[in-house]
Amino acid sequence: MVTEVRQYGATFRLDYSLVYWNSRLEHEHIRLVSQFQTGETICDMFCGIGPFAIPAAQKGCLVYANDLNPDSVHYLRTNAKINKVEDHIRAYNMDARMFMIQLMSPPASETMMETRVPSLNMCENSKSPESGTVISENGRSTGENEILDTEEIVQDDLASIIANGAAKRRAKICDQDQVTEGGSTTAASKKNRSANKRIKSFSSASPKTWEHVDHVIMNLPASALQFLDVFEGLLQRKYWKGPLPWIHCYCFIRSTESEESILAVAEGNIGAKILDPVFHWVRDVAPNKAMFCLSFRLPEASCFKENATENTAQAV
Length: 316
Description:
The chain is of the alpha/beta class. It is built from 10 helices and 11 strands. A hairpin with a 2-residue loop joins strand 10 and strand 11 (289-297). Helix 6 crosses helix 7. Residues 177-200 are annotated as: Disordered. This is tRNA (Guanine(37)-N1)-methyltransferase 2 isoform X1. Pfam families: TRM5-TYW2_MTfase.
C-alpha cells in the first residue's frame, strides 16, 4: 500500500510492503543532518527512501545516495522530485562497497569524469543482483552476490544534466524578470525567489568525490560495522584535498557488549586506531539492545592507498 508521511517539512512517499520506514527515528535524522553545512558533499551508503538524503539536499548539500534495494531507490527518486531536490541528489542502486569504490576512484582523465557520475534519473535502467540474499538498509532481502556493472548504471553523461539544469535556471530567471505594470513582481517571481532562498543551486561542475567528501552515512545498524573495511586504502593522497570525512556508522550494542568492544570491532575492520570516537545513543530497540551512532574522522593511517600498501608489505 502506497502512502505518504511528512517529517521535518519533507514529504515521503513509500510502500510499506517494499521498503522500510520508522517514524520514531525522526529526531535522529534531524540531529545528524543538523551537523551538515550548505554546500557540503554527503555520501549515504544505505539510503533507503531518503530519510537523511532528502533533508540534507533541502539544506543545500549534494548527496550521493545508494541502496541495494531497487524499490528504495525508486522511492528515493520519487521523493526527491516531490520535494524538488532532484538536482541535489545522485542516486545509485548497487552494492555499498562498490558504491564507495566507484566514487573514490579517479577517472583515467578529467574528460572521462562525466561517465563516472550518474544522475538521479539514471537508476531506472540499473539492474539489481539476481543471486544471493542480504538484508539491505530498508530491511528487505535483496541480492548481493552479483555486483552491478558500472556501465549498466551510467546511461547518459553529465553534459545533458548540466544542460537541463541550465535551462531550468534560465526559465526561473525569466519568471523573476516579469513585473506587473505597477512595477510589482508577479506571483511566479515571488515563488521562485522563495525557492531559490530555500535551496541554493550548485554550479554546473559536480564535485570530484575522489578529491573530497565531507560526511559518509552508514545507516545499517545490523551490519554497518562490517562495511568499514571498504575505507582501508580507499583514497589516493595525490588527489585528496582538505580534511578527511566524518564517518557516521550506526550499530547495535547489546547488554553483553560495551562501547569499547564495539570500537575494537570498528578499528579492526577499518585497519587503524580511531581517534576521539563519539557514541550517540539513538534508542532502545529491545530490553537488552540499543541503537547507537558511532561518529569519527576517517583515520589517515589506513584510508590512503599508499599507507595501506606499506602496512601490507610490513605485515608480510
